[in-house]
Task: inverse folding
């Protein structure tokens, strides 16, 4: 479109020059009018061809949690309507199965391993807000791409790819340093520690933690005393060792049982405005912030990119009073319904302001649902991954990676479509670049592919021939979409020993090492219940192994953001609201949500 505008503009200019030569200065007025007309046409076409962008990202939502994706017992009318008005992506794949690396890939269009956001050990997410680990600032996000096109940008909700308030450092990690002009939300994540009850994520995932720490301390103390008794170390050294280990164990216990104090707060740009987070009102606050942003854009006429990154349906689960007990699936179902309401409210505002036709709307989840998790009362608070087996954290099963995807863009995309071609959350970066006519950076590998040709019907086949499924920094499976036919193959190198486990620490290591690897025809066997004899498909397997080898060759070593030193809490950087009270309420919402 930009090339066509340039040609049109050049032709009009040439016509004016010819007229000027023929008629002299008397034609100057006509030339000027033609020139102004051409400018107006170019600007109108560019605006019409560069849509607004509205992205919704759910947290831990399962493929089967929405009505439009097969759930007949949990009402999600607003998302169902959004899908009916646009395109339903039924083969939508996350880049990872935990929050931090998946969100890094979503923001950058690159596998997490390329930016150092893939851990080499079981702790695959950032735990402390004030730590050194972060998405490197040199990574280019879709926020920066939209800014380059002149869009007003905002990020609302959960961030979780690193955080720093040090504005003096040009490399500091913050949404406002990654292309977004406004931020309101949570720097890290929501965990069960943030609930009103005495829940502790650390004790839930490892109930034996206090006993293990005490045992470690007593063992070290005993050995130190024995070494002192036999004369191998002095009494001073013995006391020093015991004191050091005692402080280490007690400090670790304090850190892991005080995540609410260290992480439960909300920011507006660089200012902490709420501590601790009032979870029942978060969704309504995000809706209000979204509505305010859209009203402002309707007033100033500026194109925009708005990201609404819900905290739902990650635990701790808390909703507004009107949603409590609404679903038959307890707090989880209530949270899904409230999130659906939130999407409906934001889209309704978009419609009422007359912005719908020229707005590209996208909805997805950062990865599959955590299936078997229970809360402090023993209630099931996990999601539903539909026909797919596996759960969040795991490195190869379909249920861990496949997530709902919905796109609506009335100006270009026909309503009521279902696309069952493999696409990825990484595709959003090149899609936005394509929509806004901004070139992608040429100094790095972009793994995503533009969705525009597939969504508009220009092509019927996914641009992805291969997708690689990571657990930590290792590939556990490869997905292959041949350029002909309609089959999608999956080759698994490692699979969970227990598909029902929801334990972060064991997901990548407690696996079966498959030799030979298992081959699945995902098209006819999406539940992965009938592995094929890979020896019967030698060319398919050979092609996939070759693609994996090429992918590994394309990787460049970068600093790993999950090194021990980068994960450590930095106490002198820790921020609080009104210390030592460590408590405040957002003045913009005072008196609005007191339930």
Result:
């Amino acid at each position: 479109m930009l090339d066509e505008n340039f040609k049109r503009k050049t032709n009009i200019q040439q016509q004016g020059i010819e007229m000027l030569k023929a008629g002299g200065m008397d034609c100057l007025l006509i030339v000027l009018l033609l020139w102004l007309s051409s400018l107006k046409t170019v600007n109108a076409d560019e605006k019409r061809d560069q849509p607004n962008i509205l992205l919704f990202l759910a947290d831990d939502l399962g493929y089967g949690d929405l009505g439009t994706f097969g759930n007949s017992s949990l009402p999600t009318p607003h998302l169902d309507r959004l899908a009916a008005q646009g395109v339903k992506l039924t083969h939508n794949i996350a880049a990872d199965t935990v929050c931090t690396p998946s969100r890094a890939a979503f923001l950058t269009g690159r596998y997490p391993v390329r930016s150092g956001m893939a851990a080499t050990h079981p702790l695959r997410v950032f735990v402390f807000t004030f730590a050194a680990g972060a998405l490197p600032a040199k990574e280019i996000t879709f926020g920066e791409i939209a800014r380059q096109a002149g869009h007003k940008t905002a990020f609302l909700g959960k961030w979780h790819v690193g955080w720093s308030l040090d504005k003096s450092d040009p490399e500091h990690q913050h949404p406002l340093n990654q292309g977004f002009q406004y931020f309101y939300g949570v720097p890290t994540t929501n965990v069960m520690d943030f609930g009103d009850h005495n829940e502790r994520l650390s004790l839930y995932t490892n109930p034996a933690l206090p006993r293990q720490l005490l045992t470690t301390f007593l063992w070290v103390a005993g050995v130190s005393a024995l070494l002192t008794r036999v004369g191998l170390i002095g009494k001073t050294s013995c006391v020093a060792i015991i004191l050091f280990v005692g402080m280490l164990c007690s400090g670790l216990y304090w850190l892991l049982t005080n995540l609410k104090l260290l992480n439960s707060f909300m920011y507006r740009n660089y200012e902490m405005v709420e501590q601790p987070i009032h979870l029942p009102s978060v969704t309504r606050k995000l809706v209000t912030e979204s509505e305010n942003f859209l009203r402002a854009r309707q007033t100033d006429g500026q194109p925009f990119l708005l990201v609404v990154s819900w905290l739902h349906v990650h635990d701790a689960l808390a909703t507004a009073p009107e949603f409590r007990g609404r679903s038959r699936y307890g707090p989880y179902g209530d949270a899904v319904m409230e999130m659906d309401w939130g999407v409906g409210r934001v889209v309704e505002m978009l419609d009422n302001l007359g912005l719908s036709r020229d707005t590209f709307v996208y909805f997805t989840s950062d990865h599959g649902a955590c299936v078997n998790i229970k809360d402090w009362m023993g209630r099931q608070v996990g999601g539903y991954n539909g026909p797919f087996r596996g759960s969040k954290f795991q490195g190869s099963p379909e249920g861990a990676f496949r997530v709902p995807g919905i796109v609506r863009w009335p100006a270009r995309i026909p309503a009521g479509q279902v696309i069952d071609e493999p696409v990825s959350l990484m595709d959003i970066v090149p899609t936005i670049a394509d929509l806004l006519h901004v070139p992608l950076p040429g100094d790095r590998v972009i793994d995503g592919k533009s969705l525009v040709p597939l969504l508009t019907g220009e092509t019927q086949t996914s641009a992805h021939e291969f997708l690689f499924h990571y657990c930590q920094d290792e590939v556990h499976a490869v997905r292959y979409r041949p350029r002909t036919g309609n089959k999608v193959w999956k080759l698994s190198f490692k699979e969970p020993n227990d598909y029902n486990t929801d334990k972060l620490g064991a997901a990548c290591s407690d696996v079966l090492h498959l030799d030979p690897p298992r081959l699945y025809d995902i098209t006819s066997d999406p539940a992965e219940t009938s592995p094929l004899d890979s020896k019967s498909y030698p060319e398919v397997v050979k092609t996939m192994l070759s693609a994996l080898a090429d992918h590994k060759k394309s990787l460049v070593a970068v600093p790993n953001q999950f090194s021990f030193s980068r994960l450590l809490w930095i106490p002198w950087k820790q921020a609080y609201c009104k210390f030592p009270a460590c408590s405040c309420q957002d003045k913009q919402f005072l008196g609005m949500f007191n339930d």
About this structure: The CA atoms of residues 119 and 563 lie 8 Å apart. The longest helix spans residues 330-352. The longest strand covers residues 511-521. Confidence is low (pLDDT under 50) at residues 1-47.
